[in-house]
Write a structure and sequence with these properties.
This protein is of the alpha+beta class and about 675 residues long. The protein contains 19 helices and 21 strands. Belongs to the ATPase alpha/beta chains family.
């Protein structure tokens, strides 16, 4: 048994489910016979009581009775309130590993069996209506039959929440770093919940209100009558509850809305090496929603750098309109695994807030998860614990070599697939997820000597030249590789980069689309540095359905946009002396000029995006490009800004028509073209 000082522990529980239920694990994620592992699996079926009363208030964000909220503390000085009623004990276990900062691994005791008849409860849980003084019966929705999201009580009285369950071990997170390894750990049949608060816009991972100007949080608050609690780790929407995605969630970023549009109820990955660019896009997206779509609710899980996120929102005037989930203030000394566990819980809290709007009020909500990378960090930590406790045969080969096992895909899907457009029977609301993920830049180290195996993916010509250097015992340095004309120079961390890219590929296979920011395009001055060949939405692609994520108006204007950009990109470094080639390059430059938008500068209206792209497509920006008005230059920005101001002034009715209908007809397009021509 291995134990690390701190609050991350592993607990061994009994009466666990033998297989993950379909509501959490998609069909493709079932573990085949060949991938079964040799760690023990506990017996029985575990479910959640439909009669469970209000969840532990320390783990719940509550509606404020007034604005004057101060922090509260327990006798030991920790923030919190009185011990809650946790429901029925359904399993016991012992801590087998703990990490500083809140993550604990608990081995569920397979020999422990509850005699309480209340353990045989329906596997369902839904929003709990908070009334005073009673709690009304919750509405039923099928939920997971495993321990994800369950409350876990430690011998010292602290309570955590299960953030990952890999039978027979549960991984529990709380922000009490004093969890004791002595005595049994108890798992209860109540799930951690979050209660929507309109006044508490900034909450921590446990939903506690962050008091402005104070390094503390408070949850000593009263619940308003009728307030709804939402399960932190809710099941993914079922097919019977969702409708087709057919309404765009415009980002205001012309290139994104044209090439990789986001639909209402969709999940979308944003991939790149520069987190500032990605955060800028996320901020612009939220700003566009709050400007153009009355009633859209925005939630931001500020996992990586909450101060930077809050400052961005404040500069954009969004700080009082966006729900922000921040890490707990006791962040010092946290092990990376504990930070990752908190990040997973933060993502769950953010989704729960959004689901409260979507399912309880029929509204549309957008959730930005600042990074999904820490999910992989937590998964790797759980794998190491399983190997330490049970040996290497306790995990499948995919987990050992960094690939995506069925079990890991189920873990990710429990977050990614929480996005959805609900049907009218479920209120007609939606949850749209934007998930940021980072990749390391491919920087070469001039002093590094590379191995021949690092060029295994290169073409035969490069391999032949590499073999020639190796045969002559010439070191594979950057300088020598450049001498033989090798354009692919691995970085010193190429192996790690490949693992990250493999992880990104796994995420892409589970998502509805991706926006890929390329470092080469950023270095060339393109903004956003979006790769048109790797950025795509998969909503409505390859299926004979009316499901679409894009706005019809922009779709009708940009029909050849991706092809034009790709053809021009393929000419990079080629002979462009012919008139046809020069014309193609000029058109590419005009399109990039029309779509140039610095990160965080704010989004355009749909009519403005249509105007800019139409002007470039019809050749009205060619002359400006020939005179040096390129994307990223002040001259270029002035040209586009003047054009948009002119068209807004000359054709306000047509612009309003596009914005309201999201479409463009022949007459409106003709009017827009005439307005553009009159400017030049």
């Amino acid at each position: 048994m291995k134990f690390h000082r701190g609050a991350l522990s592993v607990v061994w529980a009994s009466s666990l489910v033998t297989t993950l239920p379909s509501v959490i694990v998609p069909a493709q994620a079932w573990i085949p016979h060949a991938q079964r592992v040799s760690r023990p699996i506990a017996r029985g079926v575990l479910s959640v009581s439909s009669g469970t009363s209000r969840a532990y208030s320390w783990l719940t964000a509550t509606v404020l009775a007034d604005d004057n909220v101060s922090s509260s503390s327990n006798a030991d000085g920790r923030s919190g309130t009185t011990q809650p009623a946790l429901g029925h004990e359904i399993a016991q276990g012992t801590i087998v590993s703990a990490f500083p900062g809140g993550l604990t691994a608990v081995h569920i005791d397979d020999s422990w069996t509850s005699t309480d008849e209340a353990d045989a409860v329906p596997s369902s849980v839904e929003a709990v209506s908070v009334a005073t003084p009673k709690v009304s019966k919750p509405v039923t929705v099928t939920a997971a039959g495993d321990l994800l999201g369950m409350h876990v009580g430690f011998p010292n009285g602290s309570v955590g929440v299960v953030v990952a369950h890999r039978p027979p071990v549960v991984f529990v997170y709380n922000d009490d770093d004093l969890a004791s390894k002595d005595g049994p750990v108890k798992v209860f049949d109540s799930r951690a919940t979050v209660t929507l608060s309109e006044q508490a816009k900034v909450v921590d991972v446990f939903g506690r209100y962050a008091v402005k100007g104070e390094e503390s949080t408070s949850n000593d608050q009263k619940l308003e009558k009728g307030a709804k609690e939402r399960v932190m780790f809710a099941p993914i929407p079922q097919v019977k509850d969702i409708a087709l995605i057919n309404t765009p969630m415009l980002t205001g970023i012309t290139m994104v809305d044209a090439l990789a549009p986001i639909g209402r109820g969709q999940n979308m990955l944003v991939i790149g090496h520069d987190v500032h660019d990605m955060r800028g896009l996320a901020t612009d997206f939220l700003q566009t929603q709050l400007r153009d779509n009355a009633g859209v609710q925005c939630v931001y899980a500020a996992i990586q750098d909450p101060k930077d996120v809050q400052q961005r929102l404040q500069r954009a005037g969004l700080d009082d309109q966006v729900h922000v989930v921040i890490p707990t203030l006791r962040a010092k000394g946290k092990d990376p695994a504990s930070k990752a566990a908190e990040a997973v819980a933060m993502a769950g809290t953010a989704c729960a807030i959004a689901e409260s709007y979507a399912l309880d009020q029929g509204k549309h909500a957008v959730v930005v998860i600042d990074t999904i990378d820490l999910h992989k960090t937590l998964w790797d930590a759980t794998t190491r614990v399983l190997v330490d406790v049970f040996g290497v045969d306790a995990v499948v080969e995919g987990d050992r070599n960094g690939a995506a096992s069925s079990e890991m895909r189920a873990f990710y899907s429990s977050l990614i697939q929480r996005a959805g457009q609900y049907n009218q029977r479920r209120g007609g609301g939606s949850v749209t997820l934007v998930l940021l993920t980072s990749i390391p830049p491919a920087n070469a180290d001039e002093t590094t000597v590379f191995e021949e195996t690092e060029f295994a993916s290169s073409n035969d010509k490069v391999k032949t030249r590499i073999q020639m250097l190796v045969s002559k015992k010439i070191p594979l340095t950057v300088a020598n590789l450049q001498k033989i004309g090798n354009s692919h120079i691995p970085s010193a961390s190429e192996g790690q980069r490949r693992l990250v890219l493999q992880h990104v590929d796994d995420l892409i296979s589970m998502s509805d689309g991706q926006i890929w920011f390329d470092e080469r395009l950023q270095a060339a001055g393109q903004s956003p540095p979006m790769d048109p060949q790797r950025s795509v939405t998969r909503i409505g692609i390859g299926a004979d359905t009316p499901s679409r994520a894009d706005a019809p108006a922009l779709r009708r204007i940009v029909e050849r946009l991706r092809l034009d950009l790709s053809q021009a990109a393929s000419m990079d470094g080629a002979d462009v002396t012919s008139k046809a080639s020069q014309s193609q390059i000029r058109k590419q430059q005009a399109l990039l000029l029309a779509m140039y938008q610095p990160a965080g500068a704010g989004g355009r209206r749909l009519s403005e995006s249509c105007t800019a792209v139409l002007a470039a497509s019809e050749g009205y920006l060619d002359q400006a490009v020939d005179h040096g008005a390129l994307a990223g230059t002040q001259q270029g920005r002035d040209v586009v800004q003047a054009l948009l101001e002119h068209v807004n002034a000359v054709s306000p009715a047509s612009m309003r028509e596009i914005d309201s209908s999201l479409d463009i007809n022949t007459e409106t397009r003709r009017d827009l073209t005439d307005a553009i021509a009159s400017h030049f």
